[in-house]
Amino acid sequence: MLKRIFLLVFIVIFLTSCSATRYKDGVYYSEAPEFPSSGWKETVEITIEKGKLTKINWDAIYKDDTIPIKKKQYSRSGLYGMLAQGANDEWYDQANAAQHFILENGIDALVVNEDGVTDSVASCSIHVNTLDKLLRECLEKAKK
Q: What is the pTM of this model?
């Protein structure tokens, strides 16, 4: 009987430790393989500390030097113009909301529909499918 209890405790501890994925500390980066028609190639950089995701920087670079700054900075300056197009928030605000949501709830809480958007983040109407893909690539790198 005592052996069974020890075996059961061992199995529970083993399964618990396997389900809680821990990552190797460091900074990991991934970017889309090519520039889409919008001209903005998305990038993701994450930081892992003490085995956990602690920072996400989702951004984008433009295809040529006509826009020499990254998308967040471009959006923050008002040049991207989502508010002028009727959006509730600029791109950088929505990107930051998505990042914060993932840090608080985990990547699996970000449900992306077939259109590439999510209802998981109330203040985010931008496409997050590439964010999801690139973040998962970074997390895979952190497992190695």
A: 0.83
Which DSSP state fits 48? E
Question: 30 with 141: CB under 8 angstroms?
Answer: yes
- The whole-angstrom separation of Cα 8 and Cα 89 is 52
- pLDDT tens per residue, range 32-66: 999 999 999 999 999 999 999 999 999 999 999 99
Q: How many residues belong to the chain?
A: 144
Question: Which one, of 127, 108, 137, lies nearest residue 31 by Cα?
Answer: 137
Q: Residue ranges of the alpha helices (H) in the chain?
A: 2-19, 71-76, 91-105, 129-143
SS3 category, 73: helix
Give the 3-state secondary structure of residue 94. helix
Residue 118 DSSP class: B
Burial, 67: exposed, middle or buried (Cβ in 10 Å; 0-12, 13-18, 19+)?
middle
- Which residues does 2 contact at the CB level (< 8 Å), separation at least 6? none
pLDDT tens column, 62-100: 999 999 999 999 999 999 999 999 889 999 999 999 999
